[in-house]
Amino acid sequence: MKITAIKATPINIPLEAPFWWTGGYYPGTSKTIIEVETDEGIIGLGEAPSVDVVHAIEAMGQRLIGLDPLDIAACEAVCVPPWQIVQNTDDSSVVKAFGAIEIALWDIRGKHWDQPLYKLLGGAVRKEIPFTEYFAFRPEVNGKGGEMSPEAVADYCLRMKEEHGSTYFEGKLILGDPQKEIATVKKLRETLGEDAMIRLDSNMQWSLSTARYVLGAIEEYNIRNYEDPVATFEEMAQLRQHSTIPFSTHVPDIRRAVALGAPDNVVTNFAVLGGISHAIRFIGACEAMGVGFWCYSGDAGICTAAYLHMTAAMPWIHEPSQSLFRWQICDVIEGGPFKQKNNVVLVPEGPGLGVTLDREALAYWHRHFVENGPLDHFYNPAAPGKFNRLPLN
After folding, report:
1. Best CA proximity match to 186, nearest among 211, 240, 149
2. Whole-model pTM?
3. CA 161, CA 370: separation in Å to the nearest integer?
4. Exposed (0-12), middle (13-18) or buried (19+): which is 123, by Cβ within 10 Å?
5. CATH class for the region spanning 119-346
6. Residues spanned by CATH 3.30.390.10 within the chain?
7. Which of 51, 110, 314, 339 sits at 20 to 30 Å (Cα–Cα) from 161?
8. Distance from chain centroid for Cα 153
9. pLDDT tens per residue across span 206-244
10. CATH topology for 3-114+357-374?
């Protein structure tokens, strides 16, 4: 079997309403969908977590034509410099670009051998994969969102519990107001009860002194984890002296985390790590060093399917991954987006990733990207603009 072509299609994934984070209003995200075609008619699907790597993926595609897609090491060798060189540069785009392609190569493997990915990874230790519901301060747009107070955020989470059986929650309470965050956490715990999991993410918004105050005030409410409460590992290590709440980060630096004693967990994307093969080794290193691992949110169904299979096969990923499933208005896979029921999504049983590309949806959301640009800009719900036109007319 030989690779005959690689396609990279940038798309937008809007949310039903934007939410507030440290960078402003977040209206959704933009991803790159990869198709690796072969001379046997098998097409592998992959996904990059951003659109800045489209040209890199296309250039790699030219090098990969004629290679055996089952020989992942040989494919990586023509696309990625020696790993020690990559680790010592400030440009990780080559890792992210090939990592997205590599997911598609694993999809081809599964389709070639007619086996779901989790079986190629050693078999399932679980088939019900846990995810958190999301909460945040959101303006109301077209009847969606509107949770701008502690009471509204808590009521939304209660509705998710009643309608979907959700008891795992994670969210951002980012408006620059420590008192409002504290009041919201208190209201969440009172509303959801002691059994609900509550995790928080400040996207590095707090100074060290403010973080000390906020974490001290919310510690009694049994917070499972706080992601990036401050900007650096060094500040998290100082914060650890004042709080027993576990910390997580999107920065995949195990060495520094272990050396400093914080953060406790890494939350990232497989393409960022260089693909599934590298993710397996990374998660193994996390396990050896006692550093937790789970996956972040906002992906399309292809990358989400990879999360499902990896979590099914990797015992160390025992915490629920993040999810924006309930807020995503679109996907590029048939039947997507995935949505949890009673906190879990079932791992797909089809060959490879077990998902099928919805070509009509792919074309639609690619056109949305072309006409609107990437969804990485500030969004002002009070001011008409190109990001208020969601979806396309």
Report:
1. 149
2. 0.94
3. 38
4. exposed
5. alpha beta
6. 3-114+357-374
7. 314
8. 22
9. 999 999 999 999 999 999 999 999 999 999 999 999 999
10. Enolase-like; domain 1 (3.30.390)
